[in-house]
Amino acid sequence: MTSLCSFAASAIALAAPAIALLSTVLVPRFAVAAGPIVINEVDYDQVDVDTTEFIELKNVSSDPVSLSGYTVTLHNGATSGSNYATFTLPNVILPAGGHFVLCGNNTLVASCDLDVAPDSNLIQNGAPDGIALRLAGTPVDRVSYEGNTTGITEGTPAGTDDPNAGVKGLSRCPDGADTEDNGADFSFRLATPGLPNDCGGGGGGPEIGLCGETATAISAIQGTGATSPLAGQTVVIEGVVVGDFQTAGINGFFVQEEDGQADGDPASSEGIFVFEGALGTAVARGQLVRVRGSVVEFDGLTELTNVTDIVVCPASVMATPVAVTLPVPVAGFLERYEGMAIEIAQTLTVTGNFELGRYGSLDLSAGGRLFQPTQMVAPGAAAIAQQSLNERSRIVLDDASTVQNPNPFPYRDAANTRRVGDTVTGLAGVLDGRLGAYRVQVEIAPTFVGSNPRPSSPPAVGGRLRAASFNVLNFFTTLDNGSPTCGPTGGLDCRGANNSTEFDRQKTKLLNAMAALQADVFALMEIENNASAAVESLVDGLNARGVGPYAYVDTGTIGTDAIKLALIYRSDKVQTVGSHRVLTSAIDPRFIDTKNRPALAQTFAEIATTARFTVVVNHLKSKGSACADVGDPDTGDGSGNCNLTRANAASALRDWIAGDPTGSGDPDYLLLGDLNSYAQEEPIKRLEAGGLSLLPSAAAVTTARSFQFMGQSGSLDHALSTPSLTPQVTGAAEWHINADEPVIADYNTEFKTDDPFDAATVYRASDHDPIVVGLALAGPAAAVRGLGWVGQGGLALALLGLSVLGRRRR
User: Model-level pTM?
Assistant: First the structure.
């Protein structure tokens, strides 16, 4: 029995049942008192297999009407005319034109069953098979119907006795019209509970028809643009199933016309997605089907929805996939293949895996991984053109599901990862066009090649000393736990781990990576800006592992941001010389320290040789938020937000180190950190113009990478050396343990039904790759021979020279 439920709204979206076109139905005329409320639509069956039965009432007056005092009675003439269910309606005010729907999801009374038994006499003892609406006991509207018409019963397989057999629906047409002649007012239509009746031509649109009969061309539905010219219309299509995803999260299948270019226009697609919903007709790839439904645009995808009929035809044929080559010639080119079977013979590279664990998708590209344009070319026209090429070179491999946090997540390898740089050849599936990207949906997962295996150890860079730059992804010892107290002033800017479980996972990963790097100096970014607890936690952890002894530069809090910069050093290899120094707006107003984190400089001496060098750790303003408040908008040249803020900070930084801020007396400066600038952007160019060298060599810059964003790789993290230090650099390289890994492998526990976190490995310790630099420092006398570099706007050469000469006397 179907439950009775009701809800009042003029736009109730219930799943629309199948339209039925009965061969014989009697809807006799009844003379009843006219009223503002009428029975507007009825959906019923003959056996208890249909749960979509409903009765829709409508206020056909121009004023609001209360339902108080109204009742609805179901009658069955086969039971001596007695009614078998009476429902008292609630005190609901229906606005003019408003609907009230009985039966659906919310139970109002104990039972609701519109099923009736066969009855040759529709009116027996004055009671019809049907429904009566009464006000204070007086009939105001009645609808009668015949049950079990010969040859057309609920559940009759489509395409046998009658391809239209199924749920029986009656609608007033025109919508709300009441001439007191049910036979004239009601006809079989596409059910639209809570909405205006579908009174289009042909009983709510064309009949489903028989296999092989005329149908609407899919190409006519798709058109040659991004949206369908037939949106909103009910159509019947016929074609071959090219992808069956009924049991997956997208709940439907793709149909393509047998002739891949039936209309002769290569710009129009011959395929379409059918959102089946709850209809439940099983189909399989290769079957020929007829489908009746409504054309809509959903999340950018042209599809059929409100599907009322699916007929599986006897024929079976496999559609020939369309050959697609990347990059496509123009943006939007793939629209012509939306919904069609495609095949890409090229070897494609995983260029993005950010959504692998959350949504089960991978970004793939032709010609290798995609790089950020301004990593390769100058901002402006060249970068814009490169971005266009990037977009035309990529496609998304999806998992045919809208399920979030799938378990297991797809396309993984034996190590529970799928790295950027891995490859796949001969991708075949159906082209989908939803959610702002062209996607390939596959029934069988493709075979990947691990073309970018995890590096087992840090890169060899030579030298006696190693310096490493490491963005530690908001390492906070103050945990949120629902009551944030983070930040230098106890503000509400907690970041990093949310609780002790996440903290332990994060710290373990970071210590694994730092212990493996064995750097003599660590330049850290994104560490909590507290007095010393966060940096001390890492130092204690390293020393407990026996890889030290390590110590840290005690800076206390720096600036006003929730995060700061830090320096950790191996105290048996180097020692600090003098005090640390910090670059702020007070020293140089070009360096806006409320946008950029104050830079931190410390001079070290190699214990074995007494040779000195100064490390400056940096973290410039991100691209993630705007700087319009300081007149620095995103200009659209590819540099992103706050480019001028970073560029001015770079100028200030260049001039600051040229003035030897720590008083080291040595021109050997190594700049490390997250500059939030790709290699060809203005901040890097200003540093290079001041004589600093980007490490590794300039020849490797265009393919350097430490970060992945939106499926494009590039280097936000950099190492630069002053002219005197550059000859003493024995090597520099990123250790690719983080940016190429999917985010699902990190320490966070949210959004992870499937959690591949492995505490025993270094992989995905952060979102940035660390950079390691090898140094073979020359003695003091040799360092003097490198003298002569003074950055633009720095202190006078004479002052720097006096400082170095003083060192030489020592």
Answer: 0.75
